[in-house]
Task: inverse folding
């Protein structure tokens, strides 16, 4: 258990999932198809790709082009899906160990045809993360750091699978070994580890982009990794819930996962005032998932459940500081 994280809930849900293996073939195909599009759509959206979920499906599954979208955005969609397919092929071998060649291959597939000069190659120039104060390492250190990283990858040493996968993602984006495509490669690497260990892949949603970037930057600047690890844990738990609901034959309101709420909508759904929600957001009890061009703060549906939990804790006379710690 790293940084105070508790993986018991994830472990228990995976045990329940394992009890239903092998899954019906039709169910597996349906879930694979859904996750293939969702992972491609969300991972690219985190990097600024403007294809919608439906447009991503048309490009990936039908090979169609979408008017008004760039060639690069189309290639990012098809290549991410191809990279995910390649990852799934590798982990069919239960004894497959993730290697440096795997990481380079994932990156090569993602960037092939977009920028062949850097696809599958480490950077040899300094780079900066747009909008971030994080200073990235000298490119001359990248080969050695990647060698050390891949050595670390082979030393699981009893770590929980989720901790291992999340830490691998964090370390790779922190090394930032490529000129471009670091985030997409790191997320596919994390999911390669998760799927190899029997977990469903983690989907970091578009509306979680700000929280995701902020949590990574916080840790990279010397702060706690807790926010980052909590975000990854929640992403994996959502995927586990999707699998468990599908096995039970329940309809998963997957589109609800992607809807965002304005502060007034969140207030009406929870019986709270706008000012209270603003205060709880300022105090760190609620997470803003996105800020629109017009400056509106948007919240995920997950915050509805968060507020219910806050209500329960307030009834028990916990202070806001204590509630924040429990959340």
Result:
């Amino acid at each position: 258990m790293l940084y105070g994280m508790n993986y018991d809930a994830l472990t228990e849900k995976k045990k329940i999932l394992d009890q239903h293996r092998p899954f019906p073939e039709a169910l597996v195909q349906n879930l694979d198809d859904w996750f293939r599009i969702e992972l491609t759509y969300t991972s690219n959206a985190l990097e600024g790709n403007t294809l919608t979920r439906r447009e991503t499906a048309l490009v990936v599954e039908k090979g169609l082009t979408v008017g008004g979208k760039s060639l690069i955005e189309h290639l990012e969609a098809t290549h991410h899906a191809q990279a995910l397919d390649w990852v799934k092929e590798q982990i069919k071998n239960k004894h497959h160990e993730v290697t440096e060649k795997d990481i380079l291959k994932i990156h090569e597939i993602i960037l092939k045809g977009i920028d062949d000069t850097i696809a599958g190659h480490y950077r040899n120039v300094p780079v900066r993360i747009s909008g971030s104060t994080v200073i990235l390492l000298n490119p001359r250190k990248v080969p050695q750091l990647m060698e050390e990283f891949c050595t670390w990858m082979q030393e699981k040493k009893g770590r929980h699978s989720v901790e291992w996968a999340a830490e691998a993602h964090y370390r790779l984006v922190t090394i930032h070994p490529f000129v471009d495509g670091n985030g997409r490669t790191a997320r596919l690497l994390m999911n390669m580890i998760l799927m190899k260990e029997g977990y469903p892949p983690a989907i970091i949603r578009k509306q979680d982009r700000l929280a995701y970037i902020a949590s990574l930057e916080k840790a990279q600047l010397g702060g706690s990794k807790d926010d980052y690890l909590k975000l990854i844990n929640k992403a994996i738990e959502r995927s586990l819930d999707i699998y468990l609901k599908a096995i039970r034959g329940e309809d998963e309101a997957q589109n609800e996962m992607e809807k965002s709420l304005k502060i007034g909508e969140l207030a009406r759904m929870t019986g709270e005032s706008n000012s209270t929600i603003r205060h709880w957001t300022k105090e760190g009890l609620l997470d803003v998932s996105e800020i629109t061009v017009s400056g509106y703060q948007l919240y995920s549906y997950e915050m509805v459940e968060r507020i219910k939990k806050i209500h329960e804790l307030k009834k028990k006379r916990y202070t806001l500081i204590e509630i924040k710690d429990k959340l």
About this structure: The mean pLDDT is 90. Residues 25-46 form the longest helix (22 residues). The beta strands are 260-262, 290-291, 297-300.
